[in-house]
Amino acid sequence: MRKTTAVCVLLCMLFVLPGLVLAQGTTADIENLVGKGKVTSLHLLGVKATNIAMQQLSFTKGDANVLAMTDAGYSIISGQTTEKCIDGVIAASGCTTGGSNLLMIHRSKELPLWFAFFKEDTRDFIYLQVNSAVVNKSVDELNKLADNQIFNIIAKENIKLDDLYNNPDKWNEKINNKVFGGNESSLIGIASIWAHPKCTFDFLQAAQFHNHICPGVNSGYLISKYLDKNLPLQQGQSYKIFAVPSWCKDDALQVIYDATVGKKGMFASDLTEEQKKMLPDNAKGVAGIYIRWDAKTNTGSGLVLAFDFDKASELAGVQNAAGPFVKLKTALTMMDYVNQPEIMVSTLKQFNVASAEELTALQAAGVNPLIKLGIMEEVK
Ligand SMILES: [Zn+2]
């Protein structure tokens, strides 16, 4: 009996332990990616976060079933930018942009640095938030610290959709307690839609920029699919988008068409409650004005589009539902209809723009383009 135990221990030492060590990201892994002598403590932070995730979620390097997310590159700690952490995650996890399983989630620079990993088959999720005080440590100093000194939050949860939908009180409590540092809805939503069979990389790019999943960002994606069918761009053309009223959709459209505010691809303004009352019944769901502009001829073709959120709720079966993940359920359902955008998107009006002056008249400050195009009347 004793002999058997000794053999087991020996076999364990020979095969299992080295296997575990090898499965973990090491300094050599980062050197292979960034070059010898170039490893910094920021790289190491990405590796250490990945190693903890590998242990707690049981995966090995290169597992395509694993999604890695981080706000590294956006978060700036004590004046230090954090993009090197991303290479640490790539080196240790094998998750990459090209593999569609590494997402850099947009955040404002003053927010904490974090990493998150999601395993699709088990729906296990782990969030690790970096203790800001360790960012300026050396590699040697960092290597001497325990995991709970490096990360001030290490939180693992299972995020199966049924559990998210059916236990609103439990999840409201977790959200209130900020189990993922206040990133709960954002990261659970992005991980869940990443696992949706119809989710593609162009949508994920919009999701990274918008940094959460909601029916609003999905409505923008469906509007882009509708435009592809009904007002497709040809060479030398681009969209001039009037986000009136603006909502989450417009972040998706800016990313998908490079129709940014700064480059005058998008003009955004909101409607007041009084203005919304002036919308006729058939235009209550107005989403915006989309002009396919040809810079060579200085002419454009335009559509005023509406979006039907009641239909989205009906399709998701959430008309009477409550809880923190009702919007996620709606967004996931909207993704099912990505090839049938006309179920929720409709044309209110078609028009032409005959000159650059006509376009400028719609863009000017103080102009409500919906009034100019005859969709609604002015508030009296
Ligand atoms: Zn949103």
From TrEMBL:
InterPro entries: FmdEsu_dom, tRNA_methyltr_O
Protein name: Metal-binding domain-containing protein
Keywords: Signal
Domain Formylmethanofuran dehydrogenase subunit E, first and last residues per copy: 209-300
Pfam families per the UniProt record, alphabetical: FmdE
SUPFAM superfamilies for this protein: FwdE-like
Organism expressing this protein natively: Desulfofarcimen acetoxidans (strain ATCC 49208 / DSM 771 / KCTC 5769 / VKM B-1644 / 5575)
Signal peptide, first to last residue: 1-23
